[in-house]
Structures are given as C-alpha cells and as structure tokens.
Amino acid sequence: MAQESKAVASGSGKEENRENQIYENVFSEIETLEWPLGTSLRSVYDDQPNAHKRFMEKLEARIRNHDREIEKMCNFHHQGFVDAITELLKVRSNAGKLKVQVTDTNRRLQDAGKEVINQSEETIRCRIQQRNIATTVEKLQLCLPVLEMYSKVREQMKAKRYYSALKTMDLLENTYLPQVHQYRFCQIMTENIPRLREEVKEISMSDLKDFLESIRKHSDKIGEMAMKQSQQQRTFNSVVKKQTNNSNERKLYVANGIVPGHIDIATSEQLQDDEDEYEEEVLTAQDLVDFSPVYRCLHIYTILGDRETFENYYRKQRRKQAGLVLLPQSNMHETVEGYRKYFNQIVGFFVVEDHILHATQGLVTRAFTDELWNMALSKIIAVLRTHSSYCTDPDLVLELKNLIVVYADTLQSYGFPVNRLFDLLLEIRDQYNETLLKKWAIVFREIFESDNCSPIPVANEEEYRMIISRFPFHDLELEKQPFPKRFPVSQSVPEIYKEFKEFIYASLKFSESLHRSSTEIDDMLRKSTNLLLTRTLSGCLQSLIKKQHIGLTELVQIIINTTHLEQACKYLEDFITNITNVSPETVHTTRLYGLSTFKDARHAAEGEIYTKLNHKIDEFIQLADYEWTMTEPNGRASGYLMDLINFLRSTFQVFTHLPGKVAQTACMSACKHLSTSLMQMLLDAEVRQISMGAIQQFNLDVIQCELFASSEPVPGFQGDTLQLAFIDLRQLLDLFMVWDWSTYLADYGQATSKYLRVNPSTALILLEKMKDTNKKNNIFSQFRKNDRDKQKLIETVVKQLRSLVNGMAQHT
C-alpha cells in the first residue's frame, strides 16, 4: 500500500510539474509575443475542463511576483532621482540670470547695428538693381536676334523668297525661340510661325497651279518644237546617209579608174542647210516654260515635311491634265492639222514630265511616267483607231502615218516605248489600203466607162512604141504587120496596168519609215496588190460584165483584155521585186493572184455571153407564130428561125478572137438552148392540139437548125458533135412523121433503140395533142374504116405509153 500511495503521489507530482511548465510557456509567450494571443490561450482552455480557473490562479500569482520585482526596482533608484531634481532646481536659478544678461547684451547690440543695417539694406538694394540691369541686358541680347530673325522672315516673305523664309523660320523656331520661350511676344511668334508656313504653302501652291496652267497652254508649242527637232534629226540623218552612200560610190569609181564628172553639190548644200537650221532652232522645254515654281514648291513642301502631299497633288493634277490632253476634237479626222495639234499636245505633256523626272528627285518616278504613258498609249491607240476609220482620203491617211512616225520617234528619243504605235500603223496600213482600194475602184470604173471596148488602133511607129512603153505587150506577128494596125486589147488595158504601178507606188509610200525589213515591205506590197486584183479590179470587172448595155462584142473584148492582163501579172511581180530588192525565189514571198482573178472574170464574161445568147434566142423564139392545126406545111422554114440562124452566124464570127473552147462552149450552149426551147414549144400546155401538118412544118425548122450545126459555125467540133444538140427533137419528130410506134415500143429500153432519146412522157403528151386534133377535125371519120383503125391504133399506143410512164414512176 505504501508503495502504491507513493507511486500515486509521484504521478500527481509529475502531472503538476507538467501543468506548471505549460503555464510557464504560455506566460512567456504572452509577455514576449506581439501578435494576437488567441492561439496561446486556446492551448490553455482546450487542455482540461478546469483549466480556466487554474490558469487565472497561476496568472494572478505571476502578477504578484512581477509587482514585487517592480517595487524592489523603484526602491533601488529612488535616491538618484531625488538628487537629480535638486540639481535641476539649481540650474533654473542660474538660467534666469543668464537670460537677463543675454537680453541686455542683445539690446545693446541692436542699438549699435541699426546704422550698419541701414547701410547694408541700401547696398543690397543697389546690388539687386545692378543684377536686374545685367539680367535685362542679357535677356535683351537674347531677344534681339529673335526679333531680327522675325523681321527677316517678314522681309523675305515680302520679297517672295519663300524658301529662304522657311529656312529662317526653322532657325528661329528651333534655335532662338527656345532660349526666350518664357516671354509673351515669343509665344505670339510661336503661334504665328505655323500660320506663316501655311501662307507659304498656299502661295507656293498657287504658283504651282499657275505653272500647271502655263504648261497646259504651252504643251502644244513644246510638242511642236520637240516633233520639229525629231523631224529635223531624221532629215539630217537621211541626208548624211545619202552623202555617205554617194561618197562610197565615188570611192568605187576611183577604184575602178573612173573619175566622176561632178560632185553631188546639192546634197552637200542640203546637208549644210539642215545643220544650220538644226543649230538655229534648237528650243527646249526650259526655253518655253519656267520650271522654277515647281522646284520652289517642291523644296518648300520638303522643308515643311509635307513632300508626299505635294507629290500626290502634283501627280493627281497631271493625271487630270493627261486625261484632258488625250481627249480629241470630234472633227479631228477631217484635217491633218487636227491630228498634228493632238500629237503636239501629247508630246508636250510627256516632254515636260521627262524634264521633271530628270530635274527633280522623286517628284515623279519612272514608274509613274510609265503608268501615265501606258494609259495614254492605250487611249491614243483607241482614238487613232476610231478616227482613222473615218478617213476616206488616202492622202490624209498617209499624212497621218507620217505624223505618227514622227510622234513615235520623238517619244522614243525620250525613252518611251512605242512598239504598240508601230503595230497600230500596221492596222492603219490596212485602212490606208482600203482607202486606196476605194479610190482605185473609182479610177477603174472611170477607165471602163471611157473605154470603147475595141482594139487600139496605131497609125505609126511612135504610137506603137508609146503603147508598148505603157503596157508590156510582145507579139512578133503584130510587129511584122504594116501600119496602121491594131492591138488586140482595148484602151483600158494599158491604163489599168499603169494604175497598177501607181497603186504600188502609193502603197509603198506608207511602208516607208516603219522600221520594217525589205522582205516585210515586199510582202505588204504583194498582199495589197493582190487585194487590188482580187477585190477591186475583180469587182469592177464583175459590175462591168453585169451591166445591161454590155453586148456580146464588148464581152468578147473583156475576155481578151483579161487574158492579156493576166499575162502582164508576171511583169508586175518583177516591178515589185525591183522596188524592194527581194528575190522572188524567197521561201515566203507572196505570189500575185492574177490568174484566179482574171480567170473568174473571164468565166463571168463567158457566162454572161451564154446568158445573153440564150436571152437573144428567147427573143427570136417569142416571134414564132405556128399554126398548130394546119393540114399541110408551108414548104419552107419559118422566118423567125432563119433570122435567128443568121444572127447566130454573125455572132459566132465575132468569137474568132476568143479562146477556142469559149467559142465552142458558147455555140454548143446556144444550140442546146434552141433545141430545148423548140421542145418546150411543142410540149407547151397552152398548145392543146397539133396536126401532122404542123409537125411537118416544125420539122422543116429543125432541119435548118441541123444544117446550121453541120456548117461548123465555130471551128473545132469533132464530127457531128454540134448536131447532137438537136438529137432529141430529131428522134421525136422522126417517130411521129414515120409513125413507127411498133419499133419504138418493141425496142424501148434497149441501148440500140432507134428512138433511144424519146421519152415516153414526151411522146405521150404530143400524141394526146394529135389525138384531140383528129377527134375535132374528123367528126365523121368513124364512118371510114381506115380512120377508125388509125384512131384505135392511137388509143392503143396511148395506153402503152401510159403504162410505160407509170412503170417509170413506180421504178423511180
């Protein structure tokens, strides 16, 4: 038990020590820590249920301990405190005495220093005035340059020296005004400087507008001078080249031992005149226009830092002016002066731009001028393409071409690309050729109108040689004939050949100065000549052939003329070759199409001959007056037919100068048409009855036609070829006159049939007309046995013919 109680006592003692240690720690934290005590107090109250009471007891004990320590401390230091108070009381009495002494000393000192103070204040006041005067002088020295600079600005503005004024303003604003910025007049100056700059900008912009208006008015003159210089340069170069060629020729003569009889003095004089004129009249854009406003305005805007605005404004205005310059007058195409004024304005515009490009840095750029030029070039090409299409005068078109060449050379000398202009000239060349073709169409028509369509008579050698010189005609038989004699061609042939040469010369004029090779020029000439042949001359020939008043004799002469013109085409090719010096053996050389042109004209003339012959035959046929119900023939051929045959004989005699096939074809065509017309006369629906007497009379007329065919009106037919034109009529008439129906019906369809060319339908129509005639004229024939048998035979043949016709219809 004693051990257990001892153990219990030992345990409770440890517990109490641990609790005291905890409170001790809490008190230490409360005394030493500065942050909130919630955490420390919570550790006390959360430990056990009666912790608060015990804690308060411990806390009170702790407070009593501290009070005892404080009391001990105070008791220890009390004597020292009392001694210190005693010492302070002694010091206070001494301090009072010292204060009285100091006050007395200060009074005496103040009384003694009043005079010094007065003198010092006067001295200070004088020093302040002196300092103020020095400061004022210094400030005035700073302000005087500002005022002088501002006055200088005013004077420069008044003298219109705006660039210098801007420089002075810049110096005033950046150098002088900052030194005296605190003064009011400087602020006024500072406020006025931007207004002065704006005033300078406005004035310079006004000058620029005046400059733009000036160059717009003078662009015509500038362009005129530039194009004149270019023309003079081209002429000068041409003369130099010509003189060089002459010099080379003289060297060649000397090398061959030949001394030339004279020197081309005229060429030298012309060269000297051109040099003098070129030197005297050299005027540039600077001579005609004062460019200083644009330079001044550019510098001003550059200084003001607004160069981009100026550049944009200048370019915008020049674009507008370009648009105005490129607008043509509505009647520009009527005269060459209209085109010249248009070109002068454009050239003047771009000469100015080229000068601005090279005289300023960046105001206009090459890209800007190229853009303007490309825009202008497209507009110019469209304008020229439109207005040149209105030109109907080839001389005006040629002058326009020369203007365009000078215009292109002028702008090319300033560095502008002009290839598209030369491409346009190729288009205008086509327009020029069209106007030439129209002009020569009138010339050809006048030649044909004045031509008498008869061979050219020559009475002597001189007249003969004159014709030979105008037209390449070579005929040994004609040369051997005595005078007077006749050329086979009419007067129009040498005139047309001469006009061909004139056309080639006119076409060549346009090809000059186009910077084209000889081969290209040769090709142009040949193509334009081909157009003259295939379109103009061919059209005029066709119109001539189709005219109503042209007779057979004139048509024959046209065929002869076209034959000789076709032969002359090779001489035209040689003529072009001599002009261009291009060998005809060149691979791409264009040939003249004279063969097809004149062949077509001859075919048309031949066709017109055939048509007129047939028309004349129709006129004779219309005079025919057969009595289709006659009982007996007249015993002689009809008068109209004899007149027709006589006409054909006389006509075919004129055809002796025609090519053989043409005359033969015309003769065969006439015979076939006559045969067809006679056949149609028999089968005419209006002819309802035909008697055997009418058939016999008709046979007499056909016999005369056959005799005409066998008389060989045109040589060259083989055998009875021409008589075959009437074979259909002959077999039909033989069938009815012999009344050989049994043979016809038996041999029908066989190649050896005697009446092979007789068509059943044709025979049926004619037989029915004869049947109706027999019924009308022989009312009482039924009482005679022979007539009854013949009528039955006709009816039988009609039935068989109808069956043949129906069979043919079913077969087809």
Automatic annotation (TrEMBL):
Pfam families: EXOC6_Sec15_N, Sec15_C. Residues 421-769 form the Exocyst complex subunit EXOC6/Sec15 C-terminal domain. Keywords: Exocytosis, Transport. Gene3D superfamilies: Dsl1p vesicle tethering complex, Tip20p subunit, domain D (1.20.58.670), Exocyst complex subunit Sec15 C-terminal domain, N-terminal subdomain (1.10.357.30). It comes from the Eukaryota. Residues 1-20 are annotated as: Disordered. Residues 58-227 form the Exocyst complex component EXOC6/Sec15 N-terminal domain. Component of the exocyst complex involved in the docking of exocytic vesicles with fusion sites on the plasma membrane. Belongs to the SEC15 family. This is Exocyst complex component.
